[in-house]
Amino acid sequence: MIDQTVSRLCYRNKMILAPMVRVGTLPMRLLALDYGADIVYCEELIDLKMIQCKRVVNEVLDTIDYVASDERVIFRTCEREKNHVVFQMGTADAQRALTVARLVENDVAGIDVNMGCPKEYSTKGGMGVALLSNPDKIEAILSTLVKGITKPVTCKIRILPSLEDTIQLVKRIERTGVAAVAVHGRRKEERPQHPVHCDIIKAISEAVSIPVIANGGSQEIIKEYAGIEEFRQLTNASSVMVARAAMWNPSIFRREGLLPAEKVLKEYLSYAIKYDSHYSNTKYCLCQMLREKLESAQGKKLHAAQSNEEIWREYPPQITPKMILLEWCRKQKLPQPVYVTVQRPSDRLFNSVVTVADKNYSSSCWDKTKKVVEQSTAIVCLRSLGLSDGRLCEGENPFTHKRKRDEEHASNTESTGSTSLDTNKKKQSITDENMTTDFRL
What we know:
441 residues; alpha/beta; TIM Barrel; Double Stranded RNA Binding Domain; eight-stranded parallel β-barrel; three-stranded antiparallel sheet; 17 strands; 19% strand
């Protein structure tokens, strides 16, 4: 029985954002979903790394984090993508794979084993394409996962030197009970500049009953939305996995057509700030989106950037007061702001109090939206501390104002934490003890 998520993927010709090293992070996955992708993959994560992680509920970011012993976040996800994200792992051991799958299965839509990665970091541990020469181990890993978890299991392979051997392998994979198999139409020694073998993917699709997901068409075929369907038809596949084309411009999933790179960059940055993306991930993704524009003056500055602050200066995104306050607390090595938001029974409006450095700040603003009152409370706190509140009035951007104190650069640094403030242009009055200020939302 194929899980509904996978069947929707395979039988309605929906598209997937494939995993790429340092690309399948949360900001990029959410952006792909915004533009129309139905299923997104995380970047390949190694079982030995994941097995050491603890599951942590991050109340500040509203995320679920899998955190290593050295406090690094190895995998971050959120409620928005829970029914759309496939967790892809690199593994060469059935029991380790099962342990990791059981750890994350309640936070994801499915589990995928990457048997198509030709990179040394994967193959030297017997993972990736190294598994293709060991079908017994492939069968053991996939069978163990299928029997051991409730979510659908898939895998991704590359084609073997002969079509007959490839079909035999896929038939053996099919017998394990997996929900689908993705086929990258290149051999392990071939790279993106080599032609994708659509004819081989097509032969595999016609030889097995399991849904086949075609992968590898970015360089030659998939240049806009129509190319996704063209690739599917050429391969007779159930669906299409898009990797590099989606990395270059995630709006490839828009039926209406590609969006300008500048717009996509800024939308990506908003997610990168909201979900506290490490600057190296952010920089990598932006460089991939710029591609030929990397030689421009702005592109060269981005390529040389060594911090989020330098990136934000070149591509200033929309910053919310909650983001600014959180970054200021981080820079001052203070605990993260804590918001207590209550609803008034009489009219069901919300009000909020934020605690920073053991002091409470509140707003007189009552609103039907929790997000609005928390942002207004953050503004009260920022102004009480003598900091810029980064007002989102028309024509204003907090990055355009000079800072008088070092801590007021917080809005330019590594950021996180909140959805954007609702811009409804109505006036509110906010207070903190004896302070009253008008501001525009």
